[in-house]
């Protein structure tokens, strides 16, 4: 990657106007690519915006810009799939995983009660593990993790080795969680999609790895949620800046093969 110029390509799509005008969020996406791959990346994000189960967008924005910072290489988090038979069991498991990651029970309970309020937040909500309060100050915008990617070729190698489904949704989610959990201020992440056709969510953390939970909501439910549990004694401004601006490429190498 040294010597190559990279570009950050970002897409967001909404229905009934832009997000700023109160439009319904449909989808979003991120890619990091060289100049020769720009067209392919843009087309892939356009296809994603036009084929989403949340509906047809009437506003799509795709933009790209040069990445001037060095790109940080991260190994993907270790993945485990937890099969559950009910939403209740899935939520109970998510709570236990968050506790194991280091999030206090009282903070988890507070976040659970406030989850419905976060369903319309476009990015992530940052919750302080000490107070249980939301501390990002971004209101409905939230924190948007950006400048991240994982090459399709390398993902396929990794997924085949670890018996993981070859799905772009999984690739994007693991890439995002890997970047988020790498930051020293982040204790854990909890997420389930706003896609009505996708009911699997996850809990991720440095100790946990990426823990998929196969049922966290009912089919047809368009509510989603992304929470980062953070240690407020760390530099919060640095954390948000790194999540939004630090370019990261996920890469699985031969040294991870064992």
UniProtKB/TrEMBL annotation:
Q: Which family does it belong to?
A: Belongs to the BioW family.
Please list the cofactors this protein needs.
Mg(2+)
* Reactions listed under catalytic activity: heptanedioate + ATP + CoA = 6-carboxyhexanoyl-CoA + AMP + diphosphate
UniProt GO molecular function: 6-carboxyhexanoate-CoA ligase activity
Q: Which UniProt keywords apply?
A: ATP-binding, Biotin biosynthesis, Ligase, Magnesium, Nucleotide-binding
Q: Which organism is it from?
A: Bacillus changyiensis
Query: Which InterPro entries does UniProt cross-reference here?
Result: BioW (IPR005499)
Span of the secretion signal?
Answer: none
* Subunit structure and binding partners: Homodimer.
Q: What does this protein do?
A: Catalyzes the transformation of pimelate into pimeloyl-CoA with concomitant hydrolysis of ATP to AMP.
Q: What is its EC number?
A: 6.2.1.14
Which pathway? Answer: Metabolic intermediate metabolism; pimeloyl-CoA biosynthesis; pimeloyl-CoA from pimelate: step 1/1
Record-linked Pfam families? BioW
Give the protein name, as stated in the record. Answer: 6-carboxyhexanoate--CoA ligase
* NCBIfam families given in the database record: bioW, PRK01322.1
User: Can the keyword Nucleotide-binding be found in this entry's annotation?
Assistant: yes
């Amino acid at each position: 990657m040294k010597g190559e110029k990279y570009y950050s390509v970002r897409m967001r799509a909404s229905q009934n106007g832009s997000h700023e005008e109160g439009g319904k969020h449909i989808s979003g996406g991120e890619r990091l690519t060289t100049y020769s791959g720009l067209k392919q990346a843009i087309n892939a994000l356009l296809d994603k915006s036009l084929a989403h189960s949340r509906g047809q967008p009437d506003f799509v924005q795709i933009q790209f810009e040069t990445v001037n910072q060095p790109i940080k290489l991260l190994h993907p988090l270790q993945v485990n799939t937890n099969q559950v038979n009910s939403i209740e069991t899935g939520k109970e498991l998510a709570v236990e995983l968050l506790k194991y990651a280091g999030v206090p029970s009282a903070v988890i309970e507070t976040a659970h009660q406030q989850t419905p309020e976060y369903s319309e937040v476009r990015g992530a909500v940052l919750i302080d593990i000490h107070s249980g309060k939301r501390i990002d100050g971004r209101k409905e915008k939230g924190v948007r993790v950006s400048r991240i990617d994982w090459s399709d070729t390398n993902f396929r190698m990794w997924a085949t080795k670890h018996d993981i489904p070859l799905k772009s949704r999984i690739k994007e989610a693991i890439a995002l969680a890997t970047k988020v959990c790498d930051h020293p201020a982040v204790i854990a992440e909890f997420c389930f999609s706003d896609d009505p056709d996708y009911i699997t969510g996850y809990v991720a953390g440095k100790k946990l790895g990426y823990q998929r939970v196969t049922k966290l909501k009912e089919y047809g439910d368009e509510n989603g949620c992304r929470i980062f549990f953070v240690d407020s004694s760390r530099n919060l401004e640095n954390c948000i800046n790194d999540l939004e601006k630090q370019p990261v490429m996920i890469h699985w190498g031969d040294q991870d093969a064992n």
